[in-house]
Specification:
This protein is of the alpha/beta class. The protein contains 18 helices and 36 strands. It folds into four domains: about 70 residues, Peptidase S8 propeptide/proteinase inhibitor I9 (Alpha-Beta Plaits); about 325 residues, Rossmann fold (3-Layer(aba) Sandwich), CATH 3.40.50.200; about 140 residues, 3-Layer(bba) Sandwich (Glucose Oxidase, domain 1), CATH 3.50.30.30; about 150 residues, Immunoglobulin-like. Helix content is about 25%, strand content about 25%. It is found in: Secreted.
Length: about 775
C-alpha cells in the first residue's frame, strides 16, 4: 500500500515537472516578438533617464538583468514615452498590468496606401494668392519610403536657409549623400534589420519611388515637360512649392512597422515640422493600440496636424482606416482626365483599354494569339494557360506575338509576376489582359500592354477563334477628358467601428493617376528586372490623395500660422466642394467633399477642438481615466503634474457624438425605426469685422433638421457662438441604410460654412 502511494506521488511529481519543463521549452522555442509598450506622454527627464526607467520596468517582468538589456530594442522618450522589446506573450500581458503602462501591443506590418491635379483644384500656377515668405517657413514631415533628393522637383536653387525652428538632421548613408535647403533633413527607422538586400537598410534612400512621389506632390518645385515616357506631359509641381520637406523613412520592402512609425513621430515632433503626412495604414484598432493615432495625438499637442490616407480596400463599406478624430483622413477622387490604351484588331475592331503603356508600335500589326493557344502542353503540372499564369506558356508560341490573357488571379502589372512579365520573359511583343471588373486605375506595363473590359475581351477571344491569322496592335497610351470628380473604386469607405459616431473619411483629394516625381533607384513597374528609370511616374491610391490634403493644410497655415490643427482641418472640411455621389455610398466615400484650398483660407467660421475636448471625448468613448492621465503626462515621474486626471471631474462631451466636429454622423441599430439625435457645436469667427450668419438646412422628406438658433451675429474676430442641431424623423423603407442632410451657415458675403449630416443604419445589406 505504501509503495503504491509513493509510486503515484512519483508519477504526479514527474508529470508536474515534465509539464513545467515542456511549457518552458515551448516558450523558449517560440521566437520572441517585438511589442510596443506605450506609456503616454514623455516627461521632461532626459532620454537617457527614460531609457533606464524602461529597462527597470522590463527587468521587473523578465527578472534577468542581461536578458532585459538584450531584448530591449528601442526607447521612445522625446515626446512619446515607451519602448520596444522582444517579448513572449505572457511577458507582454504582465507588462500591460504594470503601473504607468497605457497599452502593450504587438508590432505589426502596415502597408502603403498606394501635374494637372493642382490646376484641377483651382491652384493654377501664377494665378492664385500665395504667402510665399510664410510658406517657405513651413516644414512638412513625410513618413514614407524615403526620398530622392536629386530629383529636379527638389532643386533648391534660390531657396533660403532652413527656418530657425528646424532642429532635425540629415542622416546620410548608402545612395544618400546629402540634403539641401528644400529637403532639410532625412532619417531612417529600421529597428529590425533582417530581410533587406545589402545596403538598403542604412539610409533614407528611396528604392520604391512612393516617398519621392508623395513629397513632390506636397512641395515640389515647378518642373516643365514632366511626363512618364511622354504620357501626361506638362508642368509638375507641389501644392506649396516654397515649403520644405523633412523625410522619415519608415517603409521597406516588407512594409511599414508600428515601432518604426512611432519612432519617426517622436523624432518629427521634436525636429520642428508643422504638418505630418503619412500615407500608410492597416487594421483599425483602439486608439491606444494604434501607432498612428498615438503619434498624431502627441503631434496635435504640439500644434502639428497629421494627414492620413483612408486606405485602398474600397469600394466595400467599413473599410476605412486611420480613424482618430485628431487626424484628417483623406479619400481619393479622380481628376478630369483618364488614360486610354487602344487595341486594334486585324478585322478593324478596336477596344479602349486602360494602362500606362509608353511603347510606340514599330509595326502596323503583330501576330495575335491567346494564352490557351500558346499553352505549353509538355509543361505538365498545375496552372491555367488561358490566364497566362507563369510556366504555362511556350516560348515558341509567344515569341514576337501579342498575347491575349483571359481574366484571372494576376491582373495588373505592379507587384507580383503579372501577365506582362510572363509574356516578356517568353519574348512576346505585347499583352492584352481581360479585366474581371472595371477599373479606373492605370498601371505601367513591362511591355506594350492594355487591360480591357470583360465584354471587349470576349470579342477578342471570338476574333482569335474566327481566323487563321489573327493580328493586333497596341497603341501608346493617350490622355482623354472625363467627368470629375468621382471617388476612385479602390478608395476605402466608411463607416467606422472604433468611434462609430465620427464620420470617416473626412475629405477627398485627387489620388487617381497622379503624375509626380519618382526615384532614380526604383524601376517603373516595380519588377526587379525592369531596368527602365524615369524622373516622373504616375501612381494611384489614397497615398496620392493624402499629400494633396497635406499641401492644402500647409497652404492654409501659410495664411494663418497661429491656427490650431483642428481649425485648419475645419477650414478644409467646411469649404470642401460637395460631391454628387448618393445611394449606398454618399458621404461614406468622400466625407465633406473634395478639398478646395483657395476657399479654405477664408472659411468665415471654424470648429475648433482643444486637447481637453479630445480628452472629454475619450472619456465618453469609454477610455479609462488612468490611461488618459498617462496620455497627457500624469505619471509618478512627472513632478510638474499637479493632480491626477479623472473623467468624473470633467464634463463629458455632449450630444450624439460628444465632439465639436465639422461633420455630424450617427450610426443607429438595425432595429431603430425612429431617429432622434442632437449635435452640439461651437464656432469661432475668423472673418473680418461684424457679420451675421443664417442657417440653411437641406434634408430628405421624412427627416426634420432644426438648427437652434437659426441666426448668429458676430461683432469681432475670435468671437464664439454655440448652436445645436436637432434631428427627428421616422426611418422610411426607401431610405435604406443611409440618410444624408446638411447644414450651411451663410453670411451673404461669400462665406458658406457647410457641415454634412449622415445617418447610417446597419441593415443586413451593409454587414
Amino acid at each position: 500500500m505504501v509503495s503504491n502511494q509513493r509510486l503515484r506521488l512519483f508519477i504526479l511529481c514527474f508529470c508536474l515537472v515534465n509539464t513545467a519543463f515542456i511549457a518552458a521549452t515551448e516558450d523558449e522555442n517560440n521566437e520572441r516578438k517585438p511589442y510596443i509598450v506605450y506609456m503616454g506622454e514623455a516627461t521632461e527627464n532626459s532620454h537617457v533617464e527614460a531609457a533606464e526607467n524602461h529597462h527597470n520596468l522590463l527587468l521587473t517582468v523578465i527578472g534577468d538583468e542581461s536578458k532585459a538589456r538584450e531584448v530591449k530594442m528601442y526607447s521612445y522618450g522625446k515626446n512619446i514615452n515607451g519602448f520596444v522589446a522582444r517579448l513572449f506573450p505572457h511577458e507582454a500581458e504582465k507588462l500591460s498590468r504594470e503601473e504607468g503602462v497605457v497599452s502593450v501591443f504587438k508590432n505589426t506590418q502596415r502597408q502603403l496606401h498606394t501635374t494637372r491635379s493642382w490646376d484641377f483644384l483651382g491652384l493654377v500656377e501664377s494665378k492664385y494668392k500665395r504667402s510665399v515668405a510664410i510658406e517657405s517657413n513651413i516644414i512638412v514631415g513625410v513618413l514614407d519610403t524615403g526620398i530622392d533628393v536629386d530629383s529636379p522637383s527638389f532643386n533648391d536653387k534660390g531657396v533660403g536657409p532652413p527656418p530657425a525652428k528646424w532642429k532635425g538632421k540629415c542622416v546620410t548613408g548608402n545612395n544618400f549623400t546629402r540634403c539641401n535647403n528644400k529637403v532639410l533633413g532625412a532619417k531612417y527607422f529600421r529597428l529590425q534589420q533582417e530581410g533587406l538586400p545589402d545596403g538598403e537598410g542604412d539610409s533614407a534612400a528611396d528604392y520604391d519611388g512612393h516617398g519621392t512621389h508623395t513629397s513632390s506632390t506636397i512641395a515640389g518645385v515647378s518642373v516643365s515637360s514632366a511626363s512618364l515616357f511622354g504620357i501626361a506631359n506638362g508642368t509638375a509641381r507641389g501644392g506649396v512649392p516654397s515649403a520644405r520637406i523633412a523625410a522619415y523613412k519608415v517603409c521597406w520592402d516588407s512594409g511599414c512597422t508600428d515601432m518604426d512609425m512611432l519612432a519617426a513621430f517622436d523624432e518629427a515632433i521634436s525636429d520642428g515640422v508643422d504638418i505630418i503626412s503619412i500615407s500608410i495604414g492597416g487594421a483599425s484598432l483602439p486608439f491606444f493600440e494604434d501607432p498612428i493615432a498615438i503619434g498624431a495625438f502627441h503631434a496635435m499637442k504640439r500644434g502639428i496636424l497629421t494627414m492620413c490616407s483612408a486606405g485602398n480596400n474600397g469600394p466595400g463599406l467599413f473599410t476605412v482606416s486611420n480613424l482618430a478624430p485628431w487626424v484628417m483622413t483623406v479619400a481619393a477622387n479622380s481628376l478630369d482626365r483618364k488614360f486610354e490604351t487602344v487595341v486594334k484588331l486585324g478585322n478593324g475592331l478596336t477596344a479602349s483599354g486602360i494602362s500606362l503603356n509608353g511603347f510606340n508600335p514599330r509595326k502596323k500589326m503583330y501576330p495575335l494569339t491567346s494564352g490557351s493557344l500558346a499553352s505549353n502542353l509538355s509543361a505538365g503540372g498545375y496552372g491555367e494557360p488561358s490566364t497566362c499564369e507563369p510556366g504555362t506558356l511556350g516560348e515558341d508560341k509567344v515569341m514576337g506575338k501579342v498575347v491575349y490573357c483571359e481574366a484571372g488571379r494576376e491582373e495588373g502589372g505592379n507587384g507580383g509576376q503579372g501577365q506582362d512579365h510572363v509574356v516578356r520573359s517568353l519574348k512576346g511583343a505585347g499583352v492584352i489582359v481581360q479585366l474581371l471588373e472595371p477599373t479606373d486605375m492605370a498601371t505601367s506595363t513591362l511591355i506594350a500592354g492594355s487591360y480591357v473590359f470583360f465584354e471587349d475581351g470576349t470579342k477578342i477571344t471570338e476574333y482569335i477563334n474566327s481566323t487563321k491569322n489573327p493580328q493586333a496592335v497596341i497603341f501608346k497610351t493617350k490622355t482623354t477628358k472625363m467627368l470629375a470628380p468621382s471617388i476612385s473604386s479602390f478608395s476605402a469607405r466608411g463607416p467606422q467601428r472604433i468611434s462609430p459616431n465620427i464620420l470617416k473619411p473626412d475629405i477627398s483629394a485627387p489620388g487617381l493617376n497622379i503624375l509626380a516625381a519618382y526615384s532614380k533607384l526604383a524601376s517603373v513597374t516595380g519588377y526587379p528586372d525592369d531596368n527602365r528609370r524615369t524622373l516622373f511616374s504616375i501612381m494611384s491610391g489614397t497615398s496620392m490623395a493624402c499629400p494633396h490634403a497635406a499641401a492644402a493644410a500647409a497652404y492654409v497655415k501659410s495664411f494663418h500660422p497661429d491656427w490650431s490643427p483642428a481649425a485648419i482641418k475645419s477650414a478644409l472640411m467646411t469649404t470642401a466642394t460637395p460631391m454628387r455621389i448618393k445611394g449606398n455610398e454618399a458621404e461614406l466615400s468622400y466625407g465633406s467633399g473634395q478639398i478646395n484650398p483657395r476657399r479654405a483660407i477664408h472659411p468665415g467660421l471654424v470648429y475648433d477642438i482643444t486637447e481637453d475636448a479630445y480628452l472629454r471625448f475619450l472619456c465618453k468613448e469609454g477610455y479609462n481615466s488612468t490611461s488618459i492621465g498617462l496620455l497627457i503626462g500624469n505619471n509618478k515621474n512627472n513632478t510638474t503634474t499637479k493632480k491626477e486626471y479623472k473623467c468624473e471631474n470633467f464634463k463629458r462631451g455632449l450630444g450624439s457624438d460628444g465632439l465639436n466636429y465639422p461633420s455630424m454622423h450617427k450610426q443607429v441599430t438595425s432595429t431603430d425605426t425612429k431617429v432622434s439625435e442632437v449635435f452640439y457645436r461651437t464656432v469661432r469667427n475668423v472673418g473680418y469685422g461684424p457679420s451675421t450668419y443664417v442657417a440653411r438646412v437641406w434634408a430628405p422628406k421624412g427627416l426634420r433638421v432644426e438648427v437652434v438658433p437659426k441666426v448668429m451675429s458676430f461683432e469681432r474676430p475670435g468671437e464664439k457662438k454655440n448652436f445645436k442641431v436637432v434631428i427627428d424623423g421616422v426611418w422610411d423603407e426607401t431610405m435604406k441604410g443611409i440618410v444624408s442632410a446638411s447644414v450651411e451657415w451663410d453670411d451673404s458675403r461669400g462665406h458658406v460654412v457647410r457641415s454634412p449630416i449622415l445617418l447610417f443604419r446597419s441593415d443586413n445589406d451593409y454587414r
